[in-house]
C-alpha cells in the first residue's frame, strides 16, 4: 500500500521558521542522491546544486530574494541550477560543439531541475524536515550567478531552504481535482468550481491572518499574471547561452 506516501505528499507546506538543529552531512547527501534518482530526459542529468554555507553569501542571497530572512537562517540553503555546461564539455570531448541556444535543451534541463528538487523535497519531508522553495533568486539572477560563480550554460532556477520546522502552518488549499484533471480533451474553466475555490481561499486567508487579509485565488492570479514579471530573465538567459531558438 502506498497510502503513507500519498499522505506525505498531501501534507506538504512551506516552512519559513526553522530550529537551530543542523542537518547531518550523511542525510544531506542521501537527499541529493534521492534527487539524482528522479527521471531525466535522455539521461541529460541537467541539474547542479550549489550548497551555500558562507553566512555573508547567505545574507546577500536573502536580500536578493526580496528580503527573505529564512534564506540566511535555515540549516541549509541550496541553489538548484539548470546545467548544460557538463554537456558542453562532453561535446568538446567528442569533437563536437554544443548547439547553442536551443529551446528544447533549455526545457529539458529546467524540467530535470524541477524533478530533481521535488525528489529532494519529498525525501526531506519524509525525514521530518521542512522546506521552502525560493523563486526570488530570479529577482537578480546575474548577481546570484556571480555570487556562486555560475559559468555559461548554467542558470539558477530556484533556491531551497531546508531545516527542522519551528512552526506548524495550516495546509494551503489546492484547486479541486475536477479543475485540473480533464477527460480526453481540454475543458473550459468551471466557473462554479472556481467560485467555490475562491471562497475556500478567502476563508483560508481570513483564518491564517486573523481577519487581516481578504483575498481569493482569482485575485492572486490577476495580480501575478496581469503585469510583467521579471522581464530581465530573457536577456539574462540569452547571456548564459539559453537563446531560445
UniProtKB/TrEMBL annotation:
SUPFAM superfamilies: FMN-dependent nitroreductase-like. Residues 10-164 form the Nitroreductase domain. Keywords: Flavoprotein, FMN, NADP, Oxidoreductase. Signal peptide: none annotated. The keyword Oxidoreductase applies. It comes from the Bacteria. Belongs to the flavin oxidoreductase frp family. NCBIfam families: PRK10765.1 (NF008033). PANTHER family: OXYGEN-INSENSITIVE NADPH NITROREDUCTASE. This is Oxygen-insensitive NADPH nitroreductase. It comes from Endozoicomonas euniceicola. The gene is nfsA.
Amino acid at each position: 500500500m502506498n497510502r503513507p506516501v500519498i499522505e506525505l505528499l498531501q501534507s506538504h507546506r512551506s516552512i519559513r521558521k526553522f530550529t537551530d538543529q543542523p542537518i547531518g552531512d550523511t542525510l544531506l547527501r542521501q537527499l541529493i542522491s534521492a534527487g539524482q534518482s528522479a527521471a531525466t530526459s535522455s539521461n541529460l542529468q541537467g541539474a547542479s546544486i550549489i550548497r551555500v554555507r558562507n553566512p555573508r553569501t547567505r545574507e546577500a542571497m536573502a536580500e536578493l530574494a526580496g528580503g527573505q530572512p529564512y534564506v540566511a537562517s535555515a540549516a541549509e540553503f541550496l541553489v538548484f541550477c539548470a546545467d548544460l555546461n557538463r554537456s558542453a564539455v562532453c561535446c568538446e570531448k567528442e569533437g563536437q560543439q554544443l548547439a547553442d541556444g536551443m529551446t528544447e535543451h533549455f526545457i529539458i534541463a529546467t524540467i530535470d531541475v524541477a524533478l530533481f528538487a521535488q525528489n529532494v523535497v519529498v525525501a526531506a519531508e519524509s525525514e521530518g524536515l521542512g522546506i521552502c522553495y525560493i523563486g526570488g533568486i530570479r529577482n537578480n539572477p546575474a548577481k546570484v550567478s556571480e555570487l556562486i560563480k555560475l559559468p555559461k550554460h548554467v542558470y539558477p532556477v530556484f533556491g531551497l531552504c531546508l531545516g527542522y520546522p519551528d512552526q506548524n502552518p495550516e495546509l494551503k488549499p489546492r484547486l479541486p481535482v475536477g479543475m485540473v484533471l480533464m477527460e480526453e480533451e481540454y475543458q473550459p474553466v468551471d466557473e462554479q468550481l472556481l467560485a467555490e475555490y475562491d471562497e475556500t481561499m478567502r476563508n483560508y486567508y481570513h483564518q491564517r491572518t486573523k481577519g487581516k487579509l481578504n483575498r481569493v485565488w482569482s485575485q492572486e492570479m490577476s495580480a501575478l499574471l496581469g503585469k510583467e514579471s521579471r522581464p530581465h530573465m530573457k536577456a539574462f538567459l540569452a547571456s548564459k547561452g539559453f537563446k531560445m531558438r
